[in-house]
Amino acid sequence: METFGERLQKLRKSKNMTQEDLASKVNVSPQAVSKWETDMASPDISLLSKLADIFDITIDELLGREVKKEVTTINEESKKDYKKRVLRILVDSNDGDHVKINFPVQLILAFKDLGKLPSITNGNNDAMKSIDWNTIFSLLEEGVVGELVSIDSNDGDKVKIVVE
């Protein structure tokens, strides 16, 4: 089982941050971060939400609790309003780029009608190219909400598509 320190170190490295970088962001000494990562000490409870925000995860995930990603179907009446939903595309690249794009579904459908679907690439990253947009549109029309796509590429890039 992974310790808090091991998890914190892995999260920090996934963002290409040094202990000094993380220490600066939470206003502690680099030595404090080192102690956290070696499980010699734990961060003050007041720092947990800031740490979770830095790594774009929940406090539960920071503490090692697995969060169940739920995908559900909304009721028939709400399905009619699927065009009012938001499609969120989250990209975390291995080289430190962190992109959040919020598309109103109605805008995405307008792009679809024009034959110009969104394309998000980072250098040689092909993760977004593998997304089947027609399947995503079908799921939207069926009233599916939640995390629809989660891609972890070989080079460490991560892409998520969520409907809310």
Describe the structure in your own words:
The protein folds into 2 domains: 4-62, lambda repressor-like DNA-binding domains (434 Repressor (Amino-terminal Domain)), CATH 1.10.260.40; 72-163, no CATH class. It has helices at residues 4-14, 19-26, 30-37, 48-55, 59-62, 76-79, 105-114, 133-142, and strands at residues 72-73, 86-92, 98-104, 144-152, 158-163. The protein has a 5-stranded antiparallel β-sheet with strand order 1-4-5-2-3. It has 164 residues and is of the alpha+beta class. The protein is built from 8 helices and 5 strands, in the order αααααβαββααββ. The longest helix is centred in the N-terminal third of the chain and has 11 residues, at 4-14.
